[in-house]
Write a structure and sequence with these properties.
- With 193 residues, this protein is of the alpha+beta class.
- Helix content is 18%, strand content 21%.
């Protein structure tokens, strides 16, 4: 990993980077860290490339590149706050489990919320599971809530998850209404009505 400057890290961020370093070493080249830098909003961003050549595409699956680039955003109070993963703004636009504000939704249902004991090992496992399911066209499994993409302007808007049973606009004209949101945490809300 290349650090752009000497980073001032919290204990949690140092733990995350140590765990990521071990993951990269154990991956036998399938995961590579290319850059680590602090952000002005207190996060540490780590850019990664993840080998996906072994994930055969299916007719309904996302067309993954042989190497996918992602950016992990590690919060100051990791592991008590989950990191997030971002891609280029339009990389997976229009696909389920992708938020157009660049975030990937790694959680398929409310039963799989973040557990601090997961550490970066659990987070990277979720990311790899997401990529595998994306290639196979299985991001929205039977009986699990759908997460269609939604347009948000930038990272400050957070993650807005629209459930499969959220109200929809009629296709025959403009729609004006309001949504009932359930705030899950500081960066995520769910549309519940």
């Amino acid at each position: 990993m290349k650090d752009s400057t000497t980073l001032e890290l919290t204990e949690g961020q140092q733990l995350a980077l140590d765990q990521l370093h071990r993951i990269v070493q154990a991956s036998q080249g399938s995961v590579a860290a290319t850059h680590v830098a602090a952000t002005t909003d207190g996060y540490v961003e780590a850019r990664f490339s993840i080998g996906c050549a072994n994930l055969p595409p299916t007719q309904d699956g996302l067309r993954l590149r042989s190497v996918e680039a992602v950016t992990l955003r590690i919060p100051a109070n990791f592991p008590f706050t989950a990191p997030s993963v971002q891609t280029r703004h339009t990389r997976f636009a229009g696909a389920p489990h992708v938020n157009w504000s660049r975030h990937l939704c790694l959680y398929r249902s409310t039963a799989t919320e973040w557990d601090p004991a997961d550490g970066m090992y659990g987070f990277i496992t979720r990311l790899l599971d997401w990529l595998e399911a994306a290639a196979a066209g299985q991001l929205d499994r039977l009986g699990e809530p759908l997460h269609p993409p939604n347009a948000l302007t930038d990272h400050t808007a957070g993650l807005l998850v629209i459930r499969h049973d959220a109200p929809v606009a009629r296709p025959d004209g403009p729609w004006l209404g309001a949504a009932v949101l359930h705030q899950v945490n500081d960066i995520r809300s769910d549309v519940v009505g």
